[in-house]
Design a protein that fits this description.
Layout: E1 3-5, E2 31-34, E3 47-51, E4 61-64, E5 68-72, E6 84-87, E7 90-93, E8 98-102, E9 106-108, E10 112-115, E11 118-122, E12 128-129, E13 134-135, E14 140-144, E15 147-148, E16 155-157, E17 162-166, E18 170-178, E19 181-184, E20 190-194, E21 200-201, E22 204-208, E23 212-216, E24 224-231, E25 237-243, E26 248-256, E27 265-269, E28 275-279, E29 332-335, E30 354-358, E31 379-383, E32 394-398
Parallel strand pairs: 1-2, 2-4, 3-5, 4-7, 5-8, 6-9, 7-10, 8-11, 9-12, 11-14, 13-16, 14-17, 15-18, 16-18, 17-19, 18-20, 19-22, 20-23, 21-26, 22-26, 29-30, 30-31
Antiparallel strand pairs: 23-28, 24-25, 25-26, 27-28, 31-32
């Protein structure tokens, strides 16, 4: 069949006939080849073609050759339009070739493929389709802020392929087919969803951190009962997952990221119905069992506190009071008053590893200037603007010895508040509103005040 070759003589536009050797649109040919041009000396220069316009016309056979790159960025005009923006029946990527999908639209890459170069999918949620639900070859698969596959379409990745997950990515892998190596970004949540019907997965998992999640596909009928990390003699780890029916799933080649030691795990069911196996980020507050990597780039979302009790007074000084003031740490604090001065007041705590919610006041510093104050550790504060004079609108985070919430600034931290207990109420309607000093408890222990 006739082949047309990319020249790029006019522009980077994939659909412009002037950029092709036949001076015709690429959809009119069976074989479409994007490769770098070869000089008289045999040197191959890079070339870039960009498919920025939606097209539902199939390219029968797509080849990305040496030093060639096809970048697919086409978007539908309407966000809810799920029609195809690019389609090919088959593709192959040679070494040093690059196929990049950077669109939220539906991209159909066909039933037949061979990736020996680089396939990158970014900013796409389960809308890159493979007719055979398989990616073959020994190249690189890069997933960035994307979801590959779903519960019904598990994508089998060739065991010779290197997979990289970054930027909050989920990969639904196939039966015994997750790639030869999977490398996680330890600074963001990355998830590999396993089929669950295997017994021993031999994939090499690199850079596993407290943010890494393994999951069991909820549609396969497999339910995890427990999961334990065991250290191997070479310093790597084995994740042993006990399943319903007395079966065991083993991931025997797990390598931890620098600064992280796998420990106790948690198992929970997510909104998609999958069973998520996670590790704890740090030992403070939540379930222990892991050490957090140094300087995470994003704060950990704190757990939702119990529903606050209404204040017993709307005091004129600190409104909801100094809820959860715990010098010893690990407490929630919630200022929920309508006072004219500091409103929600010091909704956080003066301990460590805790977080507080400063409520809204009616005037002056209205929204709790120290919404999640924490002296001596890791705090999280949420503040609310109620008046024009309130300059602290926004969420605030603090890492060490700072005023979380003040000015809405943040520094990275790792830690969560523990369950409230050992608290008592103290009411003074004129000073501290309702339930102030809850959890005072000799300045230590756990507290929750509103």
């Amino acid at each position: 069949m006739t082949t047309t070759y990319w020249t790029g003589d006019k522009s980077n536009n994939f659909y412009d006939p002037a950029n092709w050797s036949t001076n015709d649109a690429p959809q009119n040919y069976h074989d479409v080849n994007v490769s770098g041009p070869t000089s008289a000396t045999g040197a191959v220069s890079p070339s870039l073609a960009i498919a920025a316009t939606p097209s539902s016309i199939d390219v029968p056979s797509l080849t990305i050759g040496t030093n060639g790159t096809l970048l697919i960025t086409a978007q539908n005009a309407c966000p809810n339009d799920t029609s195809t923006v690019f389609s090919t029946q088959s593709f192959q990527v040679f070494q040093s070739g690059n196929l990049v999908v950077d669109t939220a639209g539906t991209v159909n890459l066909g039933a037949f493929n061979e990736n020996n170069g680089s396939l990158t999918i970014q900013n796409n949620t389960s809308n890159v389709l493979f007719g055979s639900d398989r990616i073959s070859g020994g190249g690189n698969l890069n997933l960035i802020n994307s979801t590959l596959g779903n519960e019904q379409h598990q994508i089998s990745v060739d065991n010779a392929m290197n997979v990289t997950l970054t930027g909050n990515t989920t990969m639904y892998g196939g039966f015994y087919a997750y790639g030869g190596t999977v490398t996680f970004d330890p600074t963001s949540k990355e998830t590999v969803v396993l089929n669950g019907n295997e017994s021993n997965v031999t994939t090499n998992f690199q850079n596993v951190s407290c943010k890494t999640e393994f999951a069991i596909n909820g549609s396969t009928g497999v339910t995890p009962v427990s999961a334990v990390y065991d250290k191997n003699t070479d310093g790597s780890y084995t994740l042993n997952v006990s399943l319903n029916g007395g079966k065991t799933l083993t991931l025997g080649d797990v390598h931890a990221a620098a600064g992280f030691t796998p420990g106790a795990t948690t198992i929970s069911k997510d909104s998609a119905g999958d069973y998520v196996i996670g590790s704890s980020c740090g030992t403070s507050g939540g379930s222990g069992g892991g050490t957090c990597p140094t300087n995470p780039t994003q704060p950990v979302t704190p757990p939702t506190p119990p529903t606050p009790q209404p204040p017993c007074g709307g005091g004129n000084n600190h409104g909801g009071g100094w809820g959860g003031w715990t010098g010893g740490g690990n407490g929630w604090g919630c200022g929920n008053g309508g006072g004219w001065n500091k409103g929600g007041s010091w909704g956080g705590n003066w301990g460590k590893n805790s977080w507080g919610n400063g409520g809204c006041g009616s005037s002056s510093k209205g929204g709790s200037i120290w919404g999640g104050q924490s002296w001596g550790g890791k705090g999280w504060g949420n503040i609310c603007k109620q008046s024009a004079s309130d300059f602290t609108c926004g969420k605030g985070f603090n890492g060490s010895k700072g005023f979380a919430g003040k000015g809405g600034s943040f520094d990275p931290f790792c830690g969560r508040g523990a369950a409230p207990k050992n608290s008592f109420d103290f009411c003074n309607p004129q000073q501290h509103g309702g339930n102030a000093f809850a959890g005072f408890g000799a300045h230590k222990g756990f507290g929750f005040g509103c």
